[in-house]
């Protein structure tokens, strides 16, 4: 097994952006998501991680734009952001992405997440953001933070279903 790093293109209001510490409203724009994704592809990336921040933060969607970007890339794409139910999961899968990444939904509804993994197998990954707060490691969801109890409930529901691991310090 080898470590594969996924460069990310976060998308808000139709533009590639970077957030400060993952906080909504702290965006710095970097232009067209298509151009950013193609730049990663041209730099040799095997995967590109596309994130719909508007969907993640519940303030809209860049679904059609991200589907266009997926269609223009020759590398594998992992799609995330706002995938919290069957409809959003099916729409994400319909883009042709190689994999979706479930984050907040994995904490909020671990049983649904387990069903998604059972249905789609390795086309579903779970990505959890971890921060160090007051010396403790804490999971962070878009809607807030989770406790160790939540983590235990999630891992039980997922039944140790393995998916490729990704890690990013936030």
UniProtKB/TrEMBL annotation:
Similarity-based family: Belongs to the HisA/HisF family.
EC number(s) stated in the UniProt entry for this protein: 5.3.1.16
Pfam families reported for this sequence: His_biosynth
Name of the protein: 1-(5-phosphoribosyl)-5-[(5-phosphoribosylamino)me thylideneamino] imidazole-4-carboxamide isomerase
Organism in which the protein naturally occurs: Nocardia africana
Source lineage: Bacteria, Bacillati, Actinomycetota, Actinomycetes, Mycobacteriales
Assigned GO CC terms: cytoplasm
GO biological process annotation, one example: L-histidine biosynthetic process
Class in the EC hierarchy, top level: isomerase
Keywords for this protein: Amino-acid biosynthesis, Histidine biosynthesis, Isomerase
Pathway note: Amino-acid biosynthesis
GO molecular function ontology, one term from the record: 1-(5-phosphoribosyl)-5-[(5-phosphoribosylamino)methylideneamino]imidazole-4-carboxamide isomerase activity
InterPro entries registered for this protein in UniProt: Aldolase_TIM, His_biosynth, Isoase_HisA-like, RibuloseP-bd_barrel
């Amino acid at each position: 097994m080898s470590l594969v790093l996924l460069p990310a293109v976060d998308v808000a209001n139709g533009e590639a952006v970077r957030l400060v510490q993952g906080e909504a409203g702290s965006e710095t724009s970097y232009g067209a998501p298509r151009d950013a994704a193609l730049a990663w592809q041209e730099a040799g990336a095997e995967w590109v991680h596309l994130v719909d921040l508007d969907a993640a933060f519940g303030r809209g969607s860049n679904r059609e734009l991200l589907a266009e970007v997926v269609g223009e890339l020759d590398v594998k794409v992992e799609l995330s952001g706002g995938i919290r139910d069957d409809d959003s999961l099916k729409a994400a899968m319909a883009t042709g992405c190689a994999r979706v990444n479930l984050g907040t939904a994995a904490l909020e509804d671990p049983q649904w997440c387990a069903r998604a993994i059972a249905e789609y197998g390795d086309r579903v990954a779970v990505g959890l953001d971890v921060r160090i707060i007051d010396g403790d490691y804490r999971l962070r969801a878009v809607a807030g933070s989770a406790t160790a109890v939540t983590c235990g409930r999630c891992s039980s529901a997922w039944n140790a279903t393995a998916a490729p691991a990704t890690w990013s310090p936030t």
